[in-house]
Write a structure and sequence with these properties.
Integrase_cat-core; alpha/beta; 296 residues; 10 helices; Transposase_IS3/IS150/IS904; 5-stranded mixed β-sheet; Transpos_IS3; two-stranded antiparallel ribbon
Length: 296
């Protein structure tokens, strides 16, 4: 079987120099962000014909330039926040959510700051707008009452990344931590707290005025801090964990269960009952064991 001879180049084929010129034009700054059709038509309007559009595509494919021809900007990946609190006062999380007002398009902004270990809401306010100065004043007041935390975590909202808030934290030597863009799990405690608020039976859905929203906040956060038994902290109230009375409360629970067991051990399958354990740590993206060893 004879080897097939290479096909001769058609007489109308572009020369190597002409193909190089086409490639140079299409990958130039002027046409790098334009489609082949756009470049071809623009050149034609200017009185220049280099080749057909199909030939342009073939030249680009032959030079691995058929896709994106621009130099692509590269962005370093956002660092995943890894925070741990082993007692109250170490890590605070804060966020802002919208509350529906009395008519369409009217919303109030609810700012909430909580301690991730105790779940205690250390500060909150309702305002007619989102404003960095309001956030700064709220955080500063909370630190005056509850002490200065090691870390303040938030998402990347306008107020959270504002200069006034950043400057306050820098001045107080508080580490700033931010969620990655579009990663709600990076701020789980604030998200969960807002869900508790908005699914509470007493939540009205909409508020007749700013004063109504603030009055609801007074009632809700008083209940949340001092009466709500939180599953994430051994069914204690945030206030009990925050102020250190949870150990005594748990001891009292154990005494009550001991008495019930002594009276009717058969009702417990002859296994001594115990109340839920107290938390030992709270995490935002649990750090690796290596990171924990390094921070110890």
């Amino acid at each position: 079987m004879r080897d097939s001879a290479p096909r001769p180049a058609p007489p109308n084929a572009l020369t190597d120099a002409e193909r190089a010129q086409v490639l140079t034009v299409l990958t130039s700054d002027r046409f790098a962000d334009k489609s082949v059709a756009q470049a071809w038509a623009t050149l034609l309007d200017e009185g220049t014909y280099l080749c057909s559009r199909s030939t342009m595509h073939r030249i680009l494919r032959a030079n691995d330039a058929a896709g994106e021809r621009r130099a692509q900007a590269t962005h370093p990946p956002r660092v995943k926040p890894e925070l741990v609190a082993t007692r109250p006062g170490q890590v605070w999380s804060w966020d802002i959510t919208k509350l529906r007002g009395p008519q369409r398009g009217v919303y109030y902004d609810l700012y909430v700051v909580l301690d991730i270990f105790s779940r205690y809401v250390v500060a909150w306010t309702v305002a007619a707008r989102e404003d960095a100065q309001i956030a700064t004043a709220m955080l500063e007041e909370a630190m005056g009452v509850h002490g200065i935390p090691d870390v303040v975590h938030a998402d990347r909202g306008t107020s959270m990344t504002s200069k006034p808030v950043a400057q306050l934290l820098v001045d107080l030597s508080v580490t700033r931590s931010h969620s990655r863009p579009h990663v709600s799990n990076d701020n789980p405690y604030s998200e969960a707290q807002f869900k508790t608020l908005k699914y509470a039976p007493a939540f009205p859905g909409e508020f007749g005025s700013l004063a109504d929203a603030r009055a609801f906040g007074e009632r809700f956060f008083g209940y949340y801090n001092h009466e709500h038994r939180h599953a994430g902290i051994g069914l204690h109230t945030p206030a009990s964990v925050h102020y250190g009375t949870a150990t005594q409360v748990r001891a009292q629970r154990q005494a009550t269960l001991d008495a019930a067991y002594a009276a009717h051990p058969d009702r417990f399958g002859h296994r001594r009952p115990a109340p839920p354990k107290l938390p030992t740590a709270a995490w935002i993206n649990q750090p690796s064991q290596e990171a924990l060893i390094q921070s110890a």
